[in-house]
Amino acid sequence: MRPWIGTAWESSRILLGCHSGHFSLPSFRLEEVLWLAETSGVATLLWLTGTYLEPDQAPAGLVRNLVSRIPAVRRNCLAALCDTLADGLTGTNAGWTYDSTLGWINHSRYSQRNPQSHLSLLKPEDFSAIRKFFA
Known about the structure:
Layout: E1 4-5, E2 14-15, H1 30-39, H2 44-48, H3 60-68, H4 78-87, E3 97-99, E4 103-105, H5 124-133
Antiparallel strand pairs: 1-2, 3-4
Helix pairs in contact: 3-4
C-alpha cells in the first residue's frame, strides 16, 4: 500500500509512506486515521496498517470497529482477524511531535514524514500540504 495525497492527474502528489517489503512507515498518526475513518469507508482499515501506535494507545476497539464494517468478514473470524491486525500496530514508538513549520513529524528512521530521514522524499512544501490536508 502506498498512501498518497493528491490525485493521479496532479503533478504534485505526495507519498506519505509505503507498507510493503520495503516499508516507509509510519505514514499516519492515529488521530489522522480516526479522521479518515470519519470521512471515508472500509479502506480506512488499510490506512490503519500505515501507523505505529504509541504504547498508551489501545487499538483493539478501533480495529474491531473497522473490521466489523467489512461485509465479507465472517463473525466467527472477527476476533482472530482483529487480534492479528492489532498486534502489528504496537511496539514501535515513532515519537510524533508537532513542528510549527512542518506540522506533525516523527522520528522513525524509515518514515517519509521524518524530515531527518535519508529515505524521505518529502520537501518542506510537501509537509505543509500534509498539514493542510489533515487540518
